[in-house]
Records
---
Amino acid sequence: MSLGSSLVLYLMIGTGVAVATYLRRDSDGAPHRFQVASSLLFWPLYLPLLLNPPGGIDRNAEMKATEEPDSEIDVAIARVEEELDRALQMLDGWAEDAIAVEASRLDELKAVWRMQADRIGELNQVLESTDTSETGLLGEASSPTLPRQSTAGGRIRQSEQGRKANINRLRELRDRMQADLTGSLAWVRELVTMIHLARYTGAPASRAEELVAQIAAAVEGLSEVSDWSQETVRAS
């Protein structure tokens, strides 16, 4: 291809880039006049700008900013799971049979941890969105005085009292579930360190099997909490 042909092709591409640059608008709708003129000759520098949609970077940053961060409970569960997996990997060649025996219960334990964390998160959202003020629906005090409608006033007071009692029960349920989950995580972390200790002090494989069985048994306590929670909801 001759120099003249290359120059014509170069300018044709530059013209297309210049037109595209002109059509691209600022936030106020004004065309990029300087960019239009310079893009005709220096179009290779403007291609990345044209390929990147306006505000694309800002939208990506906004999406990252709006992503919900992991809760403290989720972070704690992930940390304990990592420590537990690392300890179980050490059992290879020493007490690997313990993993085979308790594999299903260990998986169940992790699943119950996540389920419990989800329920706690849901309860937190419910409690945060629940109006706990002393004001009734119509802006009146929660204990209105209605001399001409004493029956209606009594029903309102009774309903408000029942509502507050239910909110308190929800809060107690959340606190109970969170305390039991935190206690389970702390107990497993302690047992994990005991596995490391047994490994490096030359303890027999039976000791590791016993510790793994205790870790797997932690799911039973959380299952009891789940049953208790369901019974509480049904009773209400």
---
Amino acid sequence: MRLIALMTTLILALLLTAPIPVSGDPLAHTYSIVARDPKTGEMGAAVQSHWFPAATDVLWVEAGVGAVATQSFVDPRYGLRGLELLRQGKLAPDVLRQLVEADPGRDTRQVAMVDSQGHVATHTGTGCIEAAGHQAGNQYSVQANLMANGRVWSAMAVAYEKTTGDLADRMLAALDAAQAVGGDIRGQQSAAIIVVRATSSGRPWVGADRLFDVRVHDHPAPLTELRRLVRLQRAYNQMNAGDELLAARKVDEALQQYTKSVELAPEIPELAFWQAVTLVSIGRESDALPIFKEVFAREPFWVELLPRLRAAKQLPDDAALIERIQAQATPPPAH
């Protein structure tokens, strides 16, 4: 048994450190950004490429650890091994130097990483297809290859530095700026953004560490679609925050989060529906009824859910109350 365990350990070590032959590398000619927000400590990465799907091999992000973008002729081990070494407390410049020196395909790689302390490292190999280059700034790096021109990465840097808002806003601005000056010479196809918290919750399996994980695999305007999905992610983040506040009996704060959620995504009636359910559950029927009325007018099937919520104790066990809510439907449901 000890021999088997030793062999397994040796094989795993070889898999994590051995380079992949260049001939077998996936392609991801693209532009991307890795960044850490100095104020919040949040870290993230974003990418756009004329390749399906860009994020799968390119973006590697872990809360409390760092963010890596590996592109051009991609070696995913820069992401896998890079995060492993960052997790051990090594700094991004040292990690990237170690990985590049051990990689016989280094000339074809383009890699950037930022660690949890904000140290940045970038490598653009001499074999990356022109136009190719990168620019690093305060706790961020932008990089691109196979671009229409050599202005792409500098435009990304300017946009990132000048844009206000949170980390997602600033990284999206960098992607838009890249496209505005020419972008990928082949056009657009896929895009993605990942943003994680400054520290790990210890519960990555429930998504608690990821504020945004939005991916557009194939779309004629992937950056436009990416922004739409980021907006929806914000709305659902607000709704989830409201649920947590409500569980902590911070009712007024929870309702503020629910309101923000509905304002961010007014086209999603379900968000307003659950806001109204919460209002009824805390005795604010008069505030809830107009919301129910609007939801039912847009999607009548929500009326049918009310008795089920009463049975599941998600609404008060009050038949008259359920009837008053159902009466907001036009026309009211037949009994």
